[in-house]
Design brief:
The protein has about 290 residues and is of the alpha/beta class. Helix content is about 30%, strand content about 25%. Strand 10 and strand 11 form a beta hairpin. The longest helix is centred in the N-terminal third of the chain and has 14 residues. It is elongated, with a radius of gyration of 22 Å.
Length: about 290
């Protein structure tokens, strides 16, 4: 028996995980396929494209880790987006021969997002598959507020530096991966060498200082403090992600290596200091807050 779930699944948050659990139950040991898209359909519909919470590769790893058997990525095109709801599902059914589809109550599909879960049930009655609807997952944030787990809410929280609340919805800390590049060496000169990380594969949280966990490609990890911003004490520059890892030997060379940074806790906002001495004193206090 084959069951599918269909969507963007950006972030693979607790709501997506609830879909997967139901799909695994419905499939009764059979195959569970996550059908998603190589690029966000909004790129073709002139709507603003949401910032990515996960790269395609990370999304696939998370989906499989949550219980999906395999991931099918659809190439987005004008022709695909013009398909009626019936044409879209019929094409998928002919390709995957699924017996069940599991979705949330607000699921939309087909041309102009005109298909609903009721449409899906009608198509299923014609093509011979069942539709299960899973209610949105609710989670409590740190202030006790109950919210529905949605990718858009995770983006909203990250844009305000609320990484701990974003972690609750995601079921893990938000993370980005990138390549260590050479910077201005200011951190090293101040006694706090940093890894400057570029080409990040997911959206960065708001400017500020964060407690982070860092991992290299071999799985070696460090705790650290991350700075996101334009280094205002030295004049406005490019927005960068820099990470200081207290336990890393001072002369370590990480250039060109891939690092994954997980944001665990907000420490403070980005500030401009009147002197280098004041900046060094604050960095010392920031690092003292990092749990080693």
């Amino acid at each position: 028996m084959t069951t599918i779930i269909l969507g963007n699944f950006d972030g693979v948050h607790t709501g997506h995980q609830a879909l997967i659990r139901t799909a695994c139950d419905v499939s009764a040991g059979g195959e569970v396929i996550a059908v998603t898209f190589e690029t966000h359909p909004a790129e073709f519909t002139k709507r603003e494209t949401p910032a990515r919470l996960t790269s395609n590769a990370m999304r696939e790893r998370l989906l499989i880790g949550a219980g999906v058997t395999r991931v099918e990525s659809l190439k987005v095109s004008e022709a695909l987006l013009r398909q009626t709801p019936h044409e879209f599902i019929a094409t998928l059914h002919n390709r995957l021969r699924f017996s069940n589809i599991v979705e949330g109550p607000d699921f939309r599909f087909g041309c102009n997002r005109s298909g609903t879960v009721e449409t899906l049930r009608e198509i299923g009655a014609q093509l011979g598959f069942a539709t299960a609807v899973v209610e949105e997952a609710e989670v409590a944030l740190h202030d006790g507020q109950l919210v529905c787990a949605r990718s858009s809410l995770v983006r909203w929280l990250l844009a305000r530096g609320r990484v701990a609340d974003a972690s609750i919805i995601l079921g893990r800390p938000h993370c980005v991966a990138g390549i260590v590049v050479e910077g201005a060496h200011r951190g090293r000169e101040l006694g706090f060498p940093t890894a400057n990380i570029a080409e990040c594969d997911a959206v960065l949280p708001a400017d500020g200082i964060y407690e982070v966990a860092v991992e290299d490609a071999r799985g070696k990890g460090w705790s650290g403090a991350a700075s996101i911003g334009t280094n205002p004490t030295f004049g406005a520059g490019l927005r960068t992600l820099e990470v200081h890892m207290p336990a890393l030997p001072f002369e370590s060379n990480l250039y060109s290596q891939s690092l994954r940074v997980s944001f665990t806790r907000w420490i403070r906002e980005m500030l401009r200091f009147d002197s280098v001495e004041a900046l060094v004193a604050q960095i010392t206090r920031d690092c003292a807050k990092v749990r080693v």
